[in-house]
Design brief:
single chain, Nucleotidyltransferase, domain 5, alpha/beta, five-stranded mixed sheet, disordered C terminus
Length: 211
């Protein structure tokens, strides 16, 4: 039984999956309340399904990119669970989750808006080959990388903020079964060694760098 946690955006995406079946899932936007409700909501998944935390055999947590605060919340919860339950834990990126959830009918371009003309993005072909690894990039540079791709679709929850167009723009709706099936055998990581993958400096780090 696998516990999946993604708090890298204003949404809480969490699920308990057993043998390709979803026992309980959460797909809900909490905005600024996410830090307050994430842990209670995850605890409630166990309570409402009569699943004991010790039934979990692995944890998969999204470690970025996305909201700096959100990423830290999910990682902290996942690490505490993994350490206290002594179960394997591994990570994946939010962009991998977005691409994996989408049908492989076109080249997939998961995008998270990062403001000021930048975004977090990746490019995956129909065979799941990564043409562009998850990166922090300007929209203009991303457009250049997409110039020679005739058909592609954008996957995002930031449609109103995107500074790029495509024939197909798909709202991200995580497919927990597909995500977990792909990453369930990924090598485990020592819980204490798991860190956020922001892909860019925090504002405080940028300020110090300028000094």
């Amino acid at each position: 039984m696998i516990l999946y946690i993604d708090t890298s955006s204003s949404y809480l995406y969490a699920a308990i999956v057993e043998k390709d079946k979803i026992r309980k899932e959460i797909k809900k936007e909490y905005g600024h309340e996410l830090s307050k409700v994430a842990l209670p909501e995850i605890v409630s998944m166990f309570e409402h399904t009569n699943i004991a935390p010790h039934d979990i055999t692995k944890i998969i947590v999204v470690n970025g990119p996305g909201s700096f605060t959100g990423i830290r919340i999910g990682i902290t919860i996942a690490k505490v669970y993994a350490w206290s339950l002594k179960v394997p834990i591994t990570t994946m990126t939010s962009l991998e989750a977005m691409a994996t959830s989408s049908k492989k009918d076109l080249v997939r371009v998961p995008i998270i808006d990062a403001r000021r003309g930048y975004c977090y993005a990746a490019i995956f072909d129909n065979d799941d080959k990564m043409l562009l690894e998850p990166t922090y990039i300007t929209y203009e540079k991303l457009k250049e990388k997409l110039k020679n791709i005739s058909k592609y679709k954008i996957i995002s929850n930031d449609q109103e903020k995107l500074q790029i167009s495509a024939n197909v723009i798909e709202t991200y709706n995580p497919d927990f079964v597909k995500i977990i099936d792909k990453f369930k055998d990924k090598k485990e990581i020592n819980a204490h060694a798991i860190n956020p993958e922001y892909l860019k400096l925090t504002e405080a780090e940028e300020s110090r760098k300028k000094c």
